[in-house]
Amino acid sequence: AQKITQTQPGMFVQEKEAVTLDCTYDTSDQSYGLFWYKQPSSGEMIFLIYQGSYDEQNATEGRYSLNFQKARKSANLVISASQLGDSAMYFCAMTPYGNNRLAFGKGNQVVVIP
Amino acid sequence: ETGVTQSPTHLIKTRGQQVTLRCSSQSGHNTVSWYQQALGQGPQFIFQYYREEENGRGNFPPRFSGLQFPNYSSELNVNALELDDSALYLCATHTGRENFQETQYFGPGTRLLVL
Which candidate in B4, B57, B97, B100 is best for mutational testing of the A interface (most A CBs within 10 A)? Predict the structure, then answer.
């Protein structure tokens, strides 16, 4: 079984600043994928970024980057140059190779203030 | 917009009733997964359908059942509703290729309230 831990309390971030969201995971699988999703108040889960366990380089997608430290089992999301529209819940999730069944953490609340 | 749609958007039911939620897949996606998200929690995997067959199930009782149709749209049925079934129900679709690099695309969800 996989376990995702997101324990940061809600965060207030100044517009245009960077924010780091912590995610640690526990799994016995050797091959797995890590994902970050954004969930605005509307409820829809929006895919942000993906990291494979065997990828040597950290993933980046526009303003999103993933700080992947495999030995520490952490996959922190960095959002650069925060925008007001970044205010949302952010979920870290993982799936072992082959079954595509996502296991999610409890999420991090981010509020961007002008 | 992902192209995944869900209906209805909101629903209110009473304990003991039955409910059917619907999900239409993004074009080209033959796999649908359903998730339950209780208030303040992350989504929990309910089950997955691939080419009209159940392809894995999470820790949910049999009163949670599903269907997938030839056009890959899907239904989630919940019988004998309980108060704890109140949640946001999300469906997610992907192409079903057997590799873990599949990204799942979610619909907007159905908010179910059981009174």
Answer: B100
